[in-house]
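>> received
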Amino acid sequence: MDLSIYFEPVSLVIEEDKGALPEKRLANVIRYYQPGEQFPDPSGYDLAIIGVKEDRNALNNQGCSEAPDHIREKLYKLYQGTPKTNIIDLGNIKPGNSVQDTYFALSSVISELVENNILPVILGGSQDLTFAQYKAYESLGRIVNMAAVDCSFDLGNAEENFNSGSYLSKIILQQPNYLFNYTNIGYQTYFVDYEALKLMQNLHFDIYRLGNIRKDLKEVEPMVRNADILTFDVSSIRQSDAPGNKNAGPNGFYGEEACQISRYAGMSDKITSIGFYEVNPERDYYDQTSHLTAQMIYYFIDGFYSRKDDVPARDKTKYIRHIVLLEEYNQTIEFYKSKKSDRWWMLLPSAPIENSGIKRNVWIPCSYEDYVLASHENEIPDKWWKTYQKLSL
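>> returned
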C-alpha cells in the first residue's frame, strides 16, 4: 500500500535550550517526514508516529485538531531515553472531505503498519478516532481487547449523532464484532450513568473506578498487558495537571500516574497501537498538557524498549507454576509466574468451556494479589471469572 497519499509532512522549528546536546534530543533521533522530502519508507522501524488533525466529531472540545504539532514540539526536545530508539514520524494524515474519509485513511494506515509489525502511536485529535483504530483490526480479521484510560465510558446515547462521547457504542454494535473485551481504567462515578454501569457488567467488561486504581497503581499493569489497543483521553487527568481540555475536571490521575500507565502500556507485549487524544492547545496553559502528553509518549517508548517477550504459551519452562484448588467452587486455577519479569498469568483451559468455539488455552494477565485472593481467601479472581463467562456465552 502506498501510504504517502494519506500524509502531509511535519513543519516544526525546534528551539534548542541553552547548553543542550542537540544530537541527544529526539528531534535528531526520530526520523520524521519534512517538507521537500520524499515520503519515507516505514519498513524496518519499530514505532511510527501519526498525527491526526481531526476534531469535527469532538464533543465540547473543538480545537484539539491542532494538538499533534504542539505535542511533537515538546516531544522532540526531550532526550533520548534508550540507545535502541528506532522510530519514524510519518507526519499528519490529511483531513478528509468528511470525517469518515479521515477514519478510513487512519484505519488503512494503522492496519498496514500493524500487519508489518510496526506499532502506531497516534496523536489526536478527538477520541472518536479510536473507532478508526478499532476498524484497522477489523479489516485484519483480528479479535481484539481494548483498554481506555478515560473518566467515562463514551457510550453516549443511541439517539445522539456519532461523536467522541459515543464511539464505544458504535464499536460494540458493529457486526461482525471483533471486540472481545473492553477495559476502562479510571472512570469517575459522577460522569457515568447507572444504566451504562449495568450494561458494562452485563457485557462482562472490566471497569475500574479512579479511586480503586489510585489505591495501587501497579494493578494497572495486568490490565493493559491484556490489551491490543490502548486509547488515552487526557480528560482522565486532573485539570491542574492537564488544563488543555474543555472537559477536564478537578479530579483525575496525576501527571506522574499518567506517565506510569503509559510505561506499563509500552511494556505490554500485546499492545500493537496506542492513541493519545483530546489535547486542546487553545485551552492549554503554557503548553502544559502538550508537554505532559509528550512525556507520556516518552515513557511509552521507554516501556516499549523494555519489553520482555514474556508470554507463558510459548515456553512454560520459564515460569513457576502454582496450582490453587478452590474447594468451595470445585475449581482449580493454574497460576504462572515469570522467572524473567515476576509477572503473573492465570490459565483458563478451553476443555471445560462448552459452546465457546475456542480451541486453545486462554492466558489471563493478573497480579500477585490475584494469586493471594485465590490461594489465601479461596475466591475466584474477577479477571478469571469474567473471561470464563464471556467464553461461555
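>> DSSP finds eleven helices and 14 strands in the chain.
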